[in-house]
Amino acid sequence: MGLAIFALLAYVAEAFPVGSNLAPANSSSSGETPSTDTIFESTNTEVDLKAIPFKEPGTIKLIVLDPGHGGKDYGAIGASGLNEKDVTLKVAKELQISLRRALGAKVLLTRDTDTYLTLSERTTFANKEKADIFISIHANASTRRAAKGIETYFLSYEASDNEARKVAAFENEVVKLEGKTHGAPTSEIEAILWDLTKSNAHHESSRLAESIHNPLVKALRGENRGVKQAPFYVLMGATMPAILLEVGFISNRKEERALARKKTHAKIADAVTDGMLRFEEVLNKASGLVKLK
Ligand SMILES: [Zn+2]
Fold this sequence. Notes:
CATH architecture: 3-Layer(aba) Sandwich
Shape: globular
CATH superfamily: Zn-dependent exopeptidases
Strand content: 5-15%
Order of helices and strands: HEHEHEEHHHEHEHH
Bound molecules: zinc ion
Radius of gyration: 18 Å
CATH topology: Aminopeptidase
Largest sheet: 6 strands, mixed
Number of helices: 9
CATH class: Alpha Beta
């Protein structure tokens, strides 16, 4: 698996056709930004990462966190006006501190402000930095207002169920903003994805998802919707174990309220860190970290 595969994967990410039965993401590139100041409790994001006690890094040395959406891409929007792009950024910042503290690893964010990034820019960043782990953070949405709970995803060509297919379609919608119209032959895409699903990094992604999912469900006392697989473009180009978290439903009033709270962001951060420590243990018992070469 070399650069050619990565280039093809990036190409696939841009070229895949998109469809969704969910309410579309608010993707207006103009228009006013709904303020979240009254929804979020104030958070101190000006944390000096250098001031966090130093721990010698273990097997996992570099983690890239990807706060989903940003800028003109709002992601899902709750009934009270909470934007997914704001939740994902706040969770990522909490998690950055928590992981750094517990693992001693370097933790980078694909964005640390409200900026727009294409899906391929996110994984390209992780690959360029030679990250050991890539985690894309999202909040879920459904037209069924009662839908709630936590889902953890890793990449596959086939979605594990119909709901997973819809979630991937929703999260993939942003490619429409990227203005790409070219496409690759389906057989080529299938071959690449089939190749990828046989790789060690893919196997590690499934173990990473399992390690993080359970602590997350427990910490949030959320409905366990399971570890699932789906064709998320944002995971396609990653050459390291990569997962996507759906930390709750912004379309559910109760979960929207919870996702607005700093306390919830901290709970998510602690749980994911706990899961990451478990995964590191798994790696230590096995043959270490596997990346595509
Ligand atoms: Zn999302």
